[in-house]
Design a protein that fits this description.
homodimer; alpha+beta; Arc Repressor Mutant, subunit A; 2 domains; 6 helices; about 25% helix; DNA-binding
DNA sequence: GAGTGGTCTAGACCACCCT
DNA sequence: GGGTGGTCTAGACCACTCC
């Protein structure tokens, strides 16, 4: 019954590779549980601890989700694609859930590229998701503390570019910084992903035609939920 | 001597958080070793295994690098920034090391968005790096198998857009897909990073004015080495 | 109550580096 | 030879879910 383990530098790595193959081959199906740690332990003839180690690595790369008391489930892979070719991240059909509004300084070091204001800003944090699906992204928008109440309300209710559209405010320029990061504790809780899970981030600075209104922010999503496309036509 | 551990859901998480704080506070300095597992074990009053668990998590998020036989070192954080505003990833001053040239089919599922050819292509794989620095990126370029020898040579020696420039071939259109991923075994070895390490990827499709020459490829880099910027001026 | 995954510990062995 | 991190195992306890 003991399957052939791939030659590899370590046992847990071989186990991980074999389980991953089964997932990719369809031997284990999305949204269904894989055999329990105890079962796999006897099947592979290795310690339960080694199985757990392999499963933990599979969680880290987004292949499975473990729920204590229930089992370990194969994760369904479905990525949302945002096109940035016109500078706008189109999310008109998305839902928004406001998480918090607080006075806060912009602290992320990657943000320094945009020369953000040193003083405290008004930070609007929200989740972006589609009905019936796991949360897509977490957005932190930083506004000048003296903006109108009406503007804050719009940013609390809709994604950035759509909020601007509904307010009738024109965009002058958008700067993006796209990078990958690892989920901090709070973000990991929100998305129900392990601490340190890879995140795709888009930092933005939006300048508008409305005097004094410049918007900074970070939109981040688990790496297996979102990607960006971009098309550039050569001039002439 | 036992320091106060942050209230948290688990011991190894508290330890990880405390060590991360020390790194960010400058108590542990870049490129220098932190105390050994045994030392930390007695300092925190927890099992060495728990320390190892915390250190492994810190490796996974790119905070430290462990070298068996030497110690665990704080990783220096320096990210290279590529501007994509004109569609070109400028890498003129970078060095290139050819890794392999082989006939291969394009297999990455994310690539399907570009409708790549189903038949086998010529795959040129190379490292991109700056002198005296750890490798920056790993590029896989897929060419039609019937391209000229001279063209293959240029792609083996230089980054894609620069190779085209030197060949005097004009670009008609570039499509990008930017996402995050986790390092497969082979890639992890090349970069000397742990298996499953977060990677920032840029998939591309370049169409040219030269008849029949369309280039597909994937450029990937460890998440803590590279990020992309993009600036969009609003028309009118 | 039985089964699940998550955590923590103890102890052993290995490969590697440095002196 | 002594120190380092990496691996594997055994065994225990917990919180949770489902029947």
């Amino acid at each position: 019954m003991t399957p052939q383990l791939r030659a590899s530098r370590s046992l847990h790595e071989s186990v991980r590779q074999e389980l991953l193959n089964r997932i990719q081959n369809g031997a284990y199906l999305p949204n269904l549980p894989i055999p329990s740690t105890a079962t796999l332990s006897s099947e592979f003839g290795v310690s339960p601890i080694t199985i757990k180690r392999a499963l933990r690595d599979l969680q880290a790369i987004g292949a499975v989700t473990a729920i204590a008391g229930k089992g370990t489930f194969v994760k369904e892979q479905r990525r949302f694609l945002i096109d940035l070719s016109d500078g706008i991240a189109h999310l008109e059909t998305a839902n928004v859930r406001l998480m918090s509004i607080a006075n806060e300084k912009i602290s992320d070091p990657a943000m320094e590229m945009f020369n953000p204001p040193g003083e405290a800003t008004l930070c609007v944090r929200k989740m972006i998701f589609f009905a019936g699906e796991p949360p897509l992204a977490y957005d932190s928008t930083y506004l000048s503390p003296d903006v109108d109440e009406a503007i804050i309300d719009k940013f609390a209710a809709r994604p950035v570019t759509e909020a601007l559209g509904r307010l009738g405010i024109r965009i002058r320029n958008i700067s993006y910084l796209i990078d990958a990061s690892t989920a901090a504790r709070k973000v990991a809780e929100i998305f129900a992903i392990p601490n340190g899970y890879p995140m795709l981030r888009r930092l933005y600075k939006v300048t508008t035609t409305k005097k004094g209104l410049t918007i900074f922010g970070i939109l981040q999503a688990p790496f297996d939920r979102l990607s960006y496309s971009l098309n550039i036509q050569s001039e002439n």
